[in-house]
Specification:
By secondary structure, this protein is mainly α. The protein contains five helices and no strands. Among the domains are: 11-55; 62-94, no CATH class. Helices cover 59% and strands 0% of the residues. One of its GO terms (cellular component) is periplasmic space.
C-alpha cells in the first residue's frame, strides 16, 4: 500500500524533512553515520533502562510495594482506600487560575521573565 504525502502525519513529515535536510547539508555518508550513531545510543540507553528495571528495582508496580500496601491497610494511615476522602485530599492537586493576577501585573508595566 502506497502512502501519499497528504496522509503523512506531522511527525512523519518532520522526520522525513529532517533527514532530507541532513542529506542536503552533510551529504549521504556523514548523515548515515550520524543516524547510525544516534540509533546505537538509543539501543544502549534502552538496554540500560531494561537492565535497571530488572535488577535494581524490586517493585515494578506501586501496588506491589509493601510500604504502599501498609499505607492503605485497615490499620494504615489511608485505611479508607485509594479512592477515600483523605487520600484524595492529600494526593491530588488542584488548579488555581492566576491569569487575572498576571494580567493585572502586566497592566502595571511589570515585565515577567519565565
Amino acid at each position: 500500500m502506497k502512502k501519499s504525502i497528504a496522509t503523512m502525519s506531522r511527525r512523519g513529515f518532520m522526520k522525513a524533512a529532517g533527514i532530507a535536510c541532513g542529506y542536503a547539508v552533510l551529504g549521504v555518508n556523514l548523515t548515515k553515520e550520524a543516524v547510525a550513531a544516534a540509533m546505537e545510543f538509543v539501543g544502549i540507553r534502552q538496554a540500560a533502562v531494561y537492565k535497571a528495571d530488572a535488577t535494581i528495582y524490586k517493585f515494578r508496580k506501586s501496588q506491589d510495594n509493601p510500604a504502599i500496601m501498609s499505607l492503605y491497610a485497615k490499620d494504615g494511615f489511608l485505611h479508607e482506600g485509594p479512592c477515600g476522602e483523605k487520600s484524595h485530599h492529600l494526593l491530588h492537586t488542584h488548579y488555581v487560575d492566576r491569569s487575572a493576577s498576571l494580567k493585572a501585573l502586566k497592566a502595571k508595566g511589570v515585565e515577567l521573565k519565565f
